[in-house]
Amino acid sequence: NTKSGIALLYNEETNNTYDVCLKLTKEVLTIQKLDVVCTSGSESQVNHRTVVLRRQATGGLGLSIKVSSIQLDMNVACFIYMRLSFISLYHSQSLSLAICINLPRSRQVHLLRTAGDEVTITVRYLREVPSFLKLPLGSPGPDHSRVSSPLFDSGVHLNGNGNNTAPSPPSPSANEPKYEKRWLDAVSLPLLMARVSRYKAGKDKLRFNCFEVFALDGASTNILQFCTAAESTDWLQAISTNINDLTQENVSPFLNIRGLVGSSCECIVHMGWACECPEGSAPGRSSTFKFLALRGPYFYIFKSPPISAADWGQAETTYNLYEVLFKVHKLWMAEDCWLQARLYLGLEHSPEQDTESLCFSILVGHGQSHTFRVELATDLAIWEKSFQRAVFLEVQRIQSKSYMCSSQGNVLCFTIDFASGFTCSESTSKTILWRYKFSQLKGSSDDGKTRVKLLFKNPESKQIEMKELEFANLTAVLHCIHSFIAAKVASMDPLFMCSQSFLGNYTNS
């Protein structure tokens, strides 16, 4: 299905905004800009002229660039359309020059300043430039009888008087070229591994009614603006959905590792972009986009997506899944109902909501953590479900995990087993000191450093028994306990077990 609509494209470098037409397909987002095409007749070289501007000691070339127009200090005017060179629609009496160039203003100024003492501009003659500029989209050539123009409407007149009628041109010849305004493709962004952002680059300030789309190669749409926040969210949701679907469908050929991902231990559960937020309010630190992946035993953090088998070894950070705790920062809904409701009411987010309402944290060993922000509540739902599934699969695969610990000066081995629960044994003789099922764990407390107290209920005496242990990396052990208990509970939930084939299954076969 193709989605299309009109938006505004804002270029921060040139500070220009103009209408564009958006076309969204499953694989590509296309931006179309209004352009002029010759539909009939011939564009004879006779219609092309050359204008030479000579640089003066004072005043330079006699023109200045002002955002979307060039003001001439002489009785020469051109409508310039630039691709590889200056090609214009020429009229000899107008007083201003409207410029339509897809170049930053700084680049335009640089070209003119460094062009030498003489600047030669190729121009193309058109009898009725003002009327032509007034053409609606898809209309034929100008109506020579009574059409006014933007130049007339703004008080600048071709004939030097105040009449709002264009001068009568000679009757057009049969072979004279005819033109139409049409939407032509300007930018096509492939959506595979692309990302979207509603936030200003490197900042936590949310744009209202706006977002950008970035392709894998770094190409960008610039800022897309919409009339309402609801329309902006609708487009953002549609584009994000296509990006996620493409990732799911193309992960095998894109990564080129079919041979490596055949086994369940290499299952790719989910991957995609998220914005990592700096911890606290440390000065000089800004948010940066990271590519996250849940694959096999690990949670990966990349600076850019892995496109080959070797890239998987170049991750910025890698964590064992069973020692990672996923935490959503705030209450959210499975769909974007809450967000949509606020947007339809025109309510902007508070600064706190901007930075935390769609965030999750990855808590890892030694109390370290990473905080990531996503664009939509649906993205947050996908990441939470994907983490649940990835951890469940990893616990099912390893079945048990042992950690060295100490108690009252004795070196012990503490084992978490999916089938039997908790076991503590001597490290050398392997003699089992005590064993409890998961259901017998009734509570715990720790000092936040190395020591933890585990409270178990004795099934025979019904008394609570406390076991105090000390670990080198207490946080990792607590997260592992949480992962095994969560997996055990999930294995007893029919709904969870039935949904496994639908929860972001990025397996490769």
TrEMBL record:
Superkingdom per UniProt: Eukaryota
Broad class of the protein's primary localization: cytoplasm
InterPro entries for the chain: PH-like_dom_sf, Syntrophin, Syntrophin_4th
Occurrences of domain Syntrophin C-terminal PH (ranges): 398-492
Region: Disordered, residue numbers: 158-177
Localisation: Cytoplasm
Molecular function as annotated in GO: structural molecule activity
Annotated Gene Ontology cellular component terms: cytoplasm; dystrophin-associated glycoprotein complex
SUPFAM superfamilies noted in UniProt: PH domain-like (SSF50729)
Keywords: Cytoplasm
Residue spans crossing the bilayer: none
Any Pfam family: Syntrophin_4th
Keyword Cytoplasm part of the UniProt annotation: yes
Protein name stated in the entry: Syntrophin, gamma 2
Annotated source species: Oreochromis niloticus
